[in-house]
Amino acid sequence: AQSVTQPDIHITVSEGASLELRCNYSYGATPYLFWYVQSPGQGLQLLLKYFSGDTLVQGIKGFEAEFKRSQSSFNLRKPSVHWSDAAEYFCAVAPLLGGATNKLIFGTGTLLAVQP
Amino acid sequence: DTAVSQTPKYLVTQMGNDKSIKCEQNLGHDTMYWYKQDSKKFLKIMFSYNNKELIINETVPNRFSPKSPDKAHLNLHINSLELGDSAVYFCASSPPAAGAQETQYFGPGTRLLVL
User: Which residues of A touch B (CB under 8 A)?
Assistant: First the structure.
């Protein structure tokens, strides 16, 4: 069965420091990969996604992620964190089910706290 | 211009009651979804509809019945509410018939508390 693992439940970084959030997936083929962010009390917003081509993808708000097939990973990075980045981050995969069948399988999320 | 909207935002009710959550999208999308986020923030798909047709039903109890009167709406009715139904319910939509690579756009969520 497909699954997504985010090993870090909670991360605290200082403002201006770099950030890397880990994501590993389990799937028989290369799925489509996504990172979403959820601010407190809000819905989910897409940061970036990967489904083919360049394995380093750029997203909104200065985020990027790198797909590594050999490690089944899709880690999210940001070179300099801002206080407004404090939120819950979800990695998700969309298995290739065909046609209009489409669903996201989410990891358990990583809560990011930013220290001044 | 809210893309995906849900009503109500908060819902507090007693066990055994029946309640509905409404979802509307103005993005022209064909596919809509319901996800449940539990108290540990874990998100899991419940249903998806494409052009008013049920596509995915992830072994959700029969007490949950989605209804799609048209492509822009997907409502969720819950009968005989139980304590374990307390969660945040998210509606989402994605563009026409393009499959798994399409971005899903999420609503703000409905926070349901069953007492």
Answer: 31-32, 34, 36, 42-46, 49, 51, 88, 90, 94-106, 108-109, 111
Cis peptide, bond prior to residue B8, ω within 30 of zero: yes
Q: What percent of chain A has pLDDT over 90?
A: 73
Q: Exposed (0-12), middle (13-18) or buried (19+): which is B95, by Cβ within 10 Å?
A: middle
The pLDDT-based confidence of B101 (bands split at 50, 70, 90) is low
For A23, phi and psi rounded to 5 degrees? -150, 130
Domains in chain A with CATH codes: 3-115 (2.60.40.10)
Reported as a pLDDT band with limits 50, 70 and 90, residue B58 is: confident
| Distance, CA of A92 to CA of A95 (rounded, Å) | 10
Range of the domain at B19: 4-102
| Domain annotation covers residue B78 | yes
Q: Which of B52, B101, B102, B111 to mutate to test the interface with A (most CBs of A within 10 A)?
A: B101
Domain count, chain B: 1
